[in-house]
Amino acid sequence: MASFKCDIVTPAEKLAACEVEMVVVPGVEGEMGFLAGHAPLVSVLADGEIRLTPAEGGPVQRYEVKGGYVQVTDDKVIILADSATPVAA
Protein backbone atom coordinates (compact mmCIF):
# COMPACT_ATOMS: atom_id res chain seq x y z
CA MET A 1 0.00 0.00 0.00
CA ALA A 2 1.26 3.53 -0.76
CA SER A 3 2.51 5.65 2.12
CA PHE A 4 2.51 9.36 2.91
CA LYS A 5 3.73 11.71 5.65
CA CYS A 6 1.74 12.61 8.75
CA ASP A 7 2.55 15.25 11.39
CA ILE A 8 0.75 15.81 14.69
CA VAL A 9 1.46 19.24 16.13
CA THR A 10 0.21 20.98 19.30
CA PRO A 11 1.03 24.48 20.54
CA ALA A 12 3.56 22.89 22.93
CA GLU A 13 5.32 20.33 20.70
CA LYS A 14 5.50 18.21 17.57
CA LEU A 15 4.23 14.79 18.70
CA ALA A 16 4.66 12.82 15.50
CA ALA A 17 6.33 13.04 12.10
CA CYS A 18 6.11 9.67 10.38
CA GLU A 19 5.37 7.70 7.22
CA VAL A 20 1.94 6.09 7.40
CA GLU A 21 -0.41 3.99 5.28
CA MET A 22 -3.61 5.32 6.86
CA VAL A 23 -4.74 8.07 9.24
CA VAL A 24 -8.10 8.08 11.05
CA VAL A 25 -9.23 11.24 12.88
CA PRO A 26 -12.38 12.22 14.81
CA GLY A 27 -14.27 14.81 12.76
CA VAL A 28 -17.17 16.85 14.07
CA GLU A 29 -19.53 14.78 11.88
CA GLY A 30 -17.85 11.42 12.52
CA GLU A 31 -14.57 9.62 11.89
CA MET A 32 -12.60 10.38 8.73
CA GLY A 33 -9.96 8.09 7.24
CA PHE A 34 -7.24 9.11 4.80
CA LEU A 35 -5.09 7.04 2.43
CA ALA A 36 -2.38 8.16 0.00
CA GLY A 37 -3.77 10.35 -2.79
CA HIS A 38 -6.79 11.60 -0.83
CA ALA A 39 -8.44 14.76 -2.14
CA PRO A 40 -7.28 17.97 -0.42
CA LEU A 41 -9.32 18.82 2.66
CA VAL A 42 -9.36 21.04 5.74
CA SER A 43 -11.72 20.10 8.58
CA VAL A 44 -12.40 20.72 12.26
CA LEU A 45 -11.53 17.93 14.69
CA ALA A 46 -13.75 16.73 17.51
CA ASP A 47 -12.44 15.32 20.78
CA GLY A 48 -11.49 11.68 20.31
CA GLU A 49 -8.76 9.34 19.12
CA ILE A 50 -6.32 9.64 16.20
CA ARG A 51 -5.06 6.34 14.75
CA LEU A 52 -1.93 6.12 12.60
CA THR A 53 -1.13 2.91 10.71
CA PRO A 54 2.67 2.92 10.19
CA ALA A 55 3.99 2.32 6.66
CA GLU A 56 6.68 -0.07 7.93
CA GLY A 57 4.15 -2.20 9.80
CA GLY A 58 3.88 -2.61 13.53
CA PRO A 59 1.14 -1.59 15.93
CA VAL A 60 -1.25 1.26 15.26
CA GLN A 61 -0.17 4.46 17.02
CA ARG A 62 -2.97 6.11 18.99
CA TYR A 63 -3.30 9.68 20.29
CA GLU A 64 -6.05 11.25 22.37
CA VAL A 65 -6.93 14.63 20.83
CA LYS A 66 -8.92 17.59 22.13
CA GLY A 67 -10.03 19.83 19.26
CA GLY A 68 -8.07 21.34 16.43
CA TYR A 69 -7.88 20.97 12.66
CA VAL A 70 -6.73 18.46 10.05
CA GLN A 71 -5.26 19.48 6.69
CA VAL A 72 -4.90 16.91 3.91
CA THR A 73 -2.78 17.55 0.81
CA ASP A 74 -1.88 15.12 -1.96
CA ASP A 75 1.13 13.77 -0.04
CA LYS A 76 0.74 14.78 3.62
CA VAL A 77 -1.71 14.96 6.52
CA ILE A 78 -1.10 17.65 9.13
CA ILE A 79 -3.03 17.50 12.39
CA LEU A 80 -3.01 20.78 14.32
CA ALA A 81 -4.43 19.79 17.69
CA ASP A 82 -5.36 22.04 20.60
CA SER A 83 -3.95 19.25 22.77
CA ALA A 84 -2.94 15.64 22.11
CA THR A 85 -1.32 12.87 24.11
CA PRO A 86 -0.11 9.40 23.10
CA VAL A 87 -2.32 6.52 24.28
CA ALA A 88 -0.43 3.62 25.87
CA ALA A 89 -0.93 0.29 24.09
From TrEMBL:
It is found in: Cell membrane; Endomembrane system. GO terms for molecular function: ATP binding; proton-transporting ATP synthase activity, rotational mechanism. CDD domains: F1-ATPase_delta. One of its GO terms (cellular component) is plasma membrane. Residues 4-84 form the ATP synthase F1 complex delta/epsilon subunit N-terminal domain. Signal peptide: none annotated. The keyword Metal-binding does not apply. It is a peripheral membrane protein. InterPro entries: ATP_synth_F1_dsu/esu (IPR001469), ATP_synth_F1_dsu/esu_N (IPR020546), ATPsynth_dsu/esu_N (IPR036771). It comes from the Bacteria. Coiled coil: none annotated. Gene3D superfamilies: F0F1 ATP synthase delta/epsilon subunit, N-terminal (2.60.15.10). Its main location: membrane. Keywords: ATP synthesis, Cell membrane, CF(1), Hydrogen ion transport, Ion transport, Membrane, Transport. Produces ATP from ADP in the presence of a proton gradient across the membrane. F-type ATPases have 2 components, CF(1) - the catalytic core - and CF(0) - the membrane proton channel. CF(1) has five subunits: alpha(3), beta(3), gamma(1), delta(1), epsilon(1). CF(0) has three main subunits: a, b and c. NCBIfam families: ATP_synt_epsi. Belongs to the ATPase epsilon chain family. This is ATP synthase epsilon chain. It comes from Senegalimassilia anaerobia. The gene is atpC.
